[in-house]
Amino acid sequence: MNIGIDDRLENHPQVVLVEGDYEIDDELSLFTVSHTDKCYSKANDALFAKGQKDDFLHEHNLIIKENQTALIMGCGHTGIVNIMEKAKSYHPQLCIGGYHLFNPLTKKTVSTALLNDIAQELKKYLQTQFYTCHCTGTEAFQFLSQQISNLFYLSCGETIES
Questions:
Q1: Cβ burial 62-99 (10 Å sphere, 16+ → b, else e)
Q2: Looking at residue 91, which CATH number applies to its domain?
Q3: 84-135 pLDDT, tens per residue?
Q4: How high does pLDDT run on average in the chain?
Q5: Contacts of 69 (CB under 8 A, 6+ apart)
Q6: N or C, which end of the chain has less CB nearby within 10 Å?
């Protein structure tokens, strides 16, 4: 099953296909993360692309610079810690996205050891408000939010005002 762009849209004049980091304008930037060496979630091991384990190099994260700097990510398959390390040059005050710490196939949350490691790394970003959602999993969120005071859960339909 292809979950990528519809082939009919690929050559549309309003569609720009990009690879790697890309600056849209002064306020919007896309970046990718090419390494998963810190705090990698084994929940990702069940995800495949083109018949092999997905490397997630195609996933982009969005930086929005307006009144404050926001980082918007999807499921964070390359790892919230690795994504934040690449994003730290932007000094995001807000980070929204999933951490993919729950495997929907096995119905299991990642290890407590990994959650502890993630918590220790995210504590470095005192200036950032973290909002996690969907694929983080409620058990992982509960664990992390007990250790990280600037971590909140964002459900579909909710809004954030700053």
A1: bbbeeeebbbebebbbbbbbbbbbbbeeeebebbbbbb
A2: 3.60.15.10
A3: 999 999 999 999 999 999 988 899 999 999 999 999 999 999 999 999 988 8
A4: 90
A5: 63, 90, 91, 92, 93, 94
A6: N
